[in-house]
């Protein structure tokens, strides 16, 4: 493929964690919310270890979530009658849209370990119908290559299309590399992108920046381009890494509590609607 934009690491850091005690045992910010302007269209990503009772019934409006289960069993309950259990490697996509009310709980006495990404919606889509989609690990297509494989959850990557049906254009790929193996990951050049190292150690980008478990990197991109880009990866040990990308929305917005809207008044209205019952009954089994 010719005329590829060659990506490099823009910034990188290691996630730090705080111990919260029971039931929200531990939490770290993979994408810190105070830097949300740099991550557009992404808002934040949280890594959580929690027991049952941490994320019981609660509302959302104006954005989407992508929840990846690292370990344990995650029980989803929503107030439209939805109920499901996700295992390691499964992903749930939620379009909160106008009025989501749900619970995300550990099953029984599990200690659940998750990554939850908040993905913004443009103003024109903030009042869309709430929806949920489970993407089970066995339904995400796998593409082998010499020295590893990739699993595509969202977007068109390596000749396959992931099953996630996001309202805005994004990609989500899990890449596994053997020690000393290399891979060139092809992404739209105009997508803002980041990666998170789940296991092992890796060299990333044209500068071969070394990263290891719990490291995060944002990547260079060309927002004006309509071509593709290449991200060079080399596993220095056995490595597993998640790569996300999305086209920036470039709208001013406010994230406050469980709501993401474009103005302060819209945030206040969301709280009024929740307390007046617009979001419907609690999400309980």
From TrEMBL:
Parts forming coiled coils: none
Keyword annotations from UniProtKB, A to Z: Iron, Metal-binding
The keyword Iron belongs to this UniProt entry's keyword annotation: yes
Keyword DNA-binding on entry: no
Pfam families: Pirin, Pirin_C
Similarity section: Belongs to the pirin family.
GO molecular function: metal ion binding
Entry's cofactor comment: Binds 1 Fe cation per subunit.
Domain named Pirin N-terminal: residues: 48-119
Protein name, entry field: Pirin domain protein
Ligand binding (Fe cation): 58, 60, 102, 104
Gene3D superfamilies reported for this sequence: Jelly Rolls
Record-linked InterPro entries: Pirin (IPR012093), Pirin_C_dom (IPR008778), Pirin_N_dom (IPR003829), RmlC-like_jellyroll (IPR014710), RmlC_Cupin_sf (IPR011051)
Entry cofactors: Fe cation
């Amino acid at each position: 493929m010719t005329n590829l934009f060659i990506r490099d690491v823009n910034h990188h850091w290691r996630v730090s964690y705080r111990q919260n005690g029971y039931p929200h045992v531990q939490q770290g910010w993979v994408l810190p919310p105070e830097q949300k302007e740099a991550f557009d269209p992404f808002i934040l990503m949280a890594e959580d270890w929690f027991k049952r009772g941490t994320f019981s019934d609660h509302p959302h409006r104006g954005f989407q979530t992508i929840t990846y289960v690292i370990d344990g069993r995650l029980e989803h309950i929503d107030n439209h009658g939805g109920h499901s259990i996700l295992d390691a490697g499964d992903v749930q996509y939620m379009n909160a849209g106008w009025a989501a009310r749900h619970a995300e709980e550990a099953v029984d006495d599990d200690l659940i370990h998750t990554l939850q990404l908040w993905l913004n919606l443009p103003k024109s889509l903030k009042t869309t119908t709430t929806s949920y989609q489970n993407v089970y690990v066995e339904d995400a297509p796998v593409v082998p290559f010499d020295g590893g494989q990739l699993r595509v959850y969202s977007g068109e990557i390596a000749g396959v299309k992931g099953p996630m049906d996001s309202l805005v254009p994004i990609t989500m790929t899990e890449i596994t590399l053997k020690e000393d193996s290399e891979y060139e990951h092809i992404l739209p050049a105009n997508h803002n992108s980041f990666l998170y190292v789940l296991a092992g150690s890796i060299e990333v980008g044209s500068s071969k920046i070394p990263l290891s478990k719990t490291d995060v990197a944002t990547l260079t991109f060309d927002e004006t381009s309509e071509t593709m880009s290449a991200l060079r990866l080399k596993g220095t040990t056995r490595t597993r890494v998640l790569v996300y990308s999305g086209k920036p929305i470039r709208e001013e917005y406010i994230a406050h509590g469980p709501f993401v809207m474009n103005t302060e008044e819209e945030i206040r209205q969301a709280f009024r609607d929740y307390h007046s019952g617009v979001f419907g009954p609690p999400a309980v089994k």
